[in-house]
């Protein structure tokens, strides 16, 4: 067990800005989805598990990202607990949950705190995680736990960061797949950070091995036409909200062209990403270009369009994520406001299933 008194709280890495090249301070825009519509639910609608009264979902799962739980950062812990409890109030028995990257700052004490919060708050037994850029951030902290970019990587290797994540997630690689109730879930993850090449910045690096694995893995069960759920922390550039500038470095995924080409062969793919933190009410939360792409905002701190070609923080209390219901002929993706405990009216989507 990690002792959380390694550092005094005052020694927490409260930097105003992350590293340049794709980090938030703390921390062609895409085609609008055609044939994909916003459901006209009100923000006060009862809950996600019974909103379709005439039929029961075949599969349900929340997707959240950018929780940034750090051992010293009380706000991150409070918002994560609030999200778990709000999701439990919607449906106490979802089939799984996905936390799509940026779990913390990759510190042993962050993983210990996250484990503690999961052990003391409700969540599905089956949990899935992806590796975000912040899972590599122990490299920005010196031996005393202070944020110290001058001494980067502070003795930390990329494999150290990966091993710590894999131990927490219970996986063998940063990319893996599983079937849940007959539906295919595929998880991708960045394999390299700045130690290998400073120009990697905060972008996902998907090796040729991982991309070849993805090509073969997508074939499994694809002939039945069921939705295939694919998760990567970083988004494909010039698609969903927040991907046309700033933290995406005009790419976000170094091999984004190869990734998009592979996924384009499967129109039933629904690709979930985080990283930008952009709030769910914005018009490009969901886009469609041969396959569907969805932004999941952030639990710890959503950002928004500043109206001048830039971005700014949304409200300090804001906290958001997604709740997904799968039916035989459609997938409902429902934006959730965890702070106000209500649905985001602008982010209620129905994706048809075409077999």
Can you describe what's shown?
With 355 residues, this protein is α/β, with parallel strands linked by helices. The protein has a single domain, classed as 4-Layer Sandwich (Purple Acid Phosphatase, chain A, domain 2), CATH 3.60.21. α1 links the parallel β2 and β3.
Short structural summary:
One of its GO terms (molecular function) is hydrolase activity. 17% of the residues lie in helices and 21% in strands.
Report the CATH superfamily. Metallo-dependent phosphatases
**Shape assignment:** globular
Number of domains: 1
**Tell me, what is the CATH class?**
Alpha Beta
Largest sheet: 7 strands, mixed
Order of helices and strands: EEHEHEHEEHEHEEEEEEEE
Mind telling me which CATH architecture this is? 4-Layer Sandwich
CATH topology: Purple Acid Phosphatase, chain A, domain 2
Proportion in β-strands: 15-25%
Number of helices: 5
Instruction: Give the number of DSSP strands.
Output: 15
- Low-pLDDT stretches: 1-17, 26-52
Through-space gap between termini: 49 Å
Q: From the alpha carbons, calculate the radius of gyration and give it in angstroms.
A: 19 Å
As laid out across the biggest beta sheet, the strand order is: 1-15-14-13-2-3-4
Secondary-structure-derived class: alpha/beta
- Overall pLDDT: 88
Helix proportion = 10-25%
């Amino acid at each position: 067990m990690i002792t959380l008194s390694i550092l005094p709280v005052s020694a927490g890495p409260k930097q105003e800005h992350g590293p340049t090249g794709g980090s938030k301070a703390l921390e062609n825009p895409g085609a609008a989805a055609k044939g994909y519509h916003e459901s006209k639910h009100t923000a006060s609608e009862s809950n996600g598990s019974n909103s379709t009264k005439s039929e029961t979902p075949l599969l349900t799962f929340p997707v959240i990202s950018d929780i940034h739980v750090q051992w010293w950062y009380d706000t991150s812990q409070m918002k994560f607990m609030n999200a778990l409890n709000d999701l439990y109030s919607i449906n106490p028995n979802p089939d799984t949950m996905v936390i799509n990257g940026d779990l913390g700052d990759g510190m042993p004490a962050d993983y210990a705190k996250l484990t503690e919060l999961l052990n003391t708050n409700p969540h599905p037994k089956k949990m899935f995680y992806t590796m975000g850029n912040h899972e590599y951030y122990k490299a920005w902290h010196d031996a005393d736990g202070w944020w110290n970019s001058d001494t980067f990587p502070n003795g930390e290797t990329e494999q150290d960061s990966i091993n710590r994540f894999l131990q927490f997630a219970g996986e063998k690689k940063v990319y893996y797949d599983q079937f849940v109730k007959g539906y295919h879930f595929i998880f991708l993850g960045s394999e390299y950070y700045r130690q290998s090449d400073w120009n990697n910045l905060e972008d996902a690096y998907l090796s040729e091995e991982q991309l070849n694995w993805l090509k073969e893995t997508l074939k499994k069960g694809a002939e039945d036409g069921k939705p295939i759920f694919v998760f990567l922390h970083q988004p494909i550039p010039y698609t969903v909200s927040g991907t046309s500038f700033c933290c995406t470095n005009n790419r976000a995924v170094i091999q984004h062209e190869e990734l998009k080409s592979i996924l384009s062969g499967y129109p039933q793919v629904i690709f979930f990403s985080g990283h930008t933190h952009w709030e769910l009410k914005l018009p490009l939360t969901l886009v469609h270009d041969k396959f569907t792409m969805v932004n999941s905002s952030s639990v710890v701190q959503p950002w928004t369009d500043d109206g001048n070609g830039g971005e700014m923080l949304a409200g300090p209390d804001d906290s958001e994520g997604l709740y997904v219901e799968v039916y035989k002929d459609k997938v409902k993706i429902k934006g959730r406001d965890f702070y106000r405990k209500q649905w985001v009216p602008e982010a209620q989507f129905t994706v048809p299933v075409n077999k």
